[in-house]
Amino acid sequence: MKLAVIPGDGIGREVIPAALSVLDAFGLGIEKIPLDIGYGKWERTGSAITNEDMDIISECDCVLFGAITTPPDPNYKSVLMRLRKELDLYANIRPFVPLKSIRLPCDTKEFDFVIVRENTEGMYSGVEELHEDVAYTTRVITRAGSERIAERACILAKSRKKHITIVHKANVLKSCSFFRDVCIGSAQRNGISHREMLMDAMAYDLILHPERYDVIVTTNLFGDILSDVAAAIAGGLGLCPSANIGERYALFEPIHGSAPDIAGKGIANPIAAILSVKMMLEWGGWVEEANSITKAVNSVLCDRITTPDLGGSYSTTDVSAAIAKLI
Question: Catalytic: 295?
């Protein structure tokens, strides 16, 4: 397998090397192709990602991605949105399961749900107009886009509890009615039971009762918001991985941002990036190795080898080295 490695900006340059040290512990012989992409490159060259970068990435099987700083500059184009669109990474998969010994803000300690987020259209379609007195962002919801994310959710549900929750705002948005109806049709064709939740009610209930949910399917913006809500429930952004999946390519990344306030201090939590490597190994067929990462992470957490965000005093590399040693 050929892996494009994009540390990006900020703490991405710390957590991705840490995650790679865990990957290297397996000795799988994965070919790693490092790429300098992101805000730092944009500051130096005027381009965060070039066509040549995309050519190299398209020759790889998947991407391990750190974090990108996005400045408030209208001339800056989102790297992640370009990667998702050009590689057609239409499904954003974010699993949420509590890790051992992590203090959770909710009463229940037992939950296991996955947010399946449409990743290429919706409010992030890039169809926008900015004028002096008004701005427009067009929410694009297509049948093809809705069907394939619903099918992805149903495939996942078949391996779990054969049930999906469809999240929308069909009470006020016709585009949500369209998305909901397509998802219901997919569930019925696949023999998957379903229920519907309005986005605001879903955010409320997910905080109180995360154990009620299994596979959650929703649109781009709503999935983005719910993922951060879920991260808080699961113990923090530093613990949560994600996968961006397409028919040909995949990209794996921690869900946190570049965190410039702590960048360079060596205290960023590498576990989200390490668990993103776990998802990459699952995608690549190395299931046993992926499972060993989960075991090693839980063991290190139980030994209280944690970064300051979890109340510890260990560095980024201390944590990754402890996990790699167990592997």
Answer: no
Q: Which pLDDT tens digit goes with each residue over 12-55? A: 999 999 999 999 999 998 999 999 999 999 999 999 999 999 99
Domain boundaries, the chain: 1-90+235-327, 104-234
Catalytic (active site) residue 314: no
Based on the residue annotation, tell me whether 124 is a catalytic residue of this protein: yes
- CA torsion sign for 50, 52, 58, 61 is negative
Catalytic annotation on 24?
no
9 part of the active site:
no
Residues 6+ apart with CB under 8 A from 26: 286, 289, 327
pTM above 0.90, yes or no: yes
CA distances from 134 to 122, 129, 131, 221 (A): 20, 8, 5, 21
Task: Point out the catalytic residue in the list 53, 224, 309, 318.
Answer: 224
> Which candidate in 169, 278, 309, 318 is catalytic?
169
Q: Collapsing DSSP states into helix, strand and coil, what is residue 295?
A: helix
CATH match for 1-90+235-327 among 1.25.40.340, 3.90.1580.10, 3.40.718.10, 3.30.360.10: 3.40.718.10
Fold of the domain spanning 104-234:
Isopropylmalate Dehydrogenase (3.40.718)
